[in-house]
Structures are given as C-alpha cells and as structure tokens.
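Q: Here's a chain of 186 amino acids. Please give me its 3D structure as tokens.
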Amino acid sequence: MIAGVALTPFDAAAILIVLAAGLGYCNYRFLKLPASIGLTVMGAVASLLVVGIARFVPGAAFARDIVGFIAGIDFHTTLMDGMLSFLLFAGALHVDWHEMRRGRWPIIVLSTIGVALSTALIGGGFLLLAHAIGFELPAIWCFVFGALISPTDPVSVMGVLKRAQVSPTLEATVAGKACSMTGWAW
C-alpha cells in the first residue's frame, strides 16, 4: 500500500518498469556504464535513498510503505513463475538456430563433458577449500554446489557475445552450450 492505495501486481510491474526505464535513461545519458552494471548501481542508489529517507525523516510514510510493499512480495513465486520464463525467452530470441545446428557437436561436447568437468573441478575445489579451513561438508553437497554454478546464464552470454562481435558459429556454439545447460535448447 502506497499513500493509502493498495497496489496490484500490475501496478507494481508498471512502477518497476517505469523506474527501470528512468534509471536506464539516467545511466545512458550521464553515467555511461554498461546497462546491467548501470542499472545495478542506480538500483542500489535508489535503495539507499529510501533507507536514508526512512532514517532521517522518521515520520515519512513513503519509506515505510515501500518497505511494506517489498516485504509483501513472494520473491520465489515472482522469480520462478514469472520473471525467469521471460528472461529465458528473451535469451532464446537471439539464438541463430541455423548456426547452432552447424555447431551441434561442439555444443554437445561442451554441454556434457564440459559441465561434468566443471562440476568436478568446482565441487572438488570447494570440498578441498572447506576442509582446508576446517569446515566439514559432505562431498555430495560440494558437488551439487559445483553442478549448480557450472551452467552459464544464456541471457548474459548472448549480450557479451553480441558486443564482442564474434563469428556467428562461435556465438551459436557458446550460446548453445549455455542454453542446453539451463534446460531450454532443442
């Protein structure tokens, strides 16, 4: 509830989109940081402003309303049932499927052997690090951790590859590996 008016999910989405657009414009116009970094910095600054208002103007209902609104969001449902599907779809829009088919063998190797090797290296390293600092963890937890962080985020990969202007086949190979590891290729 902001200013005595209950917000619907549509209202919240509209506010967040307008806020992201405004902050993105400020970043583009003044800071000139890469978009994801700029929005992160601007979001952190906006959060600090809300905290500052709450701290230095104790009677301000604005900050309390924002905190109450954010506390009322079910982030698990919002992320898993809402935002994640749009992010994955946005990443899939930029995949050149013809090039991905041409590079299918490197993609298959990277998304199977590469993931298994990455999981083993990260999980084993995490296990060794935990034991080195005297923290006993079951090996299976370490390897599950390795398996969870091994997949590459296809949305960020596609953005980096577009800016790097790599060959279409290399772009499709890396994107295909990222896509297949997150479960939305083929």
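Q: Can you summarize the key feature?
A: The chain has nine helices and no strands.
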